[in-house]
Amino acid sequence: MDLPNLPLIFSGVSMIVAAASFWRSGKWRESDEAKALNSRVLAVETVTKSLATKEDLADLEGRINGHSVLLENLATKSEIAKLEGDIKAVKSELTGLAKANATVAANTDRILDFLLEQKK
Predict the structure, then answer these.
(1) SS3 assignment, position 31
(2) pLDDT in tens, 32-60
(3) Which of 37, 79, 95, 118 has the fewest CB atoms within 10 Å, i.e. the most exposed one?
(4) Largest Cα–Cα distance in the chain?
């Protein structure tokens, strides 16, 4: 064999090996292993896209803090029951005042009629 053709032979063998590797990798993409790997990569990409950013977390933390302040200021059942009792007491007092006002109005009218008759 002639040495000057040896690099040419190595280049040809290298091209054949590259073509075979290319053909084999093309076939691998259609295999079950490749499809499983591709589905795992897509799942990771989906999870990565759905992760919250720092701004989202800060926004959520602010909203949670706001809601916790609102919940702290809500009345309890016992406080609501006490307010209902107070409202009933005020209602009964107003009813009593209305009756007293009616009596005072009737007496005032009677006194006014008396004074008007005395003036004549």
Answers:
(1) coil
(2) 887 888 888 888 888 877 777 788 888 88
(3) 118
(4) 158
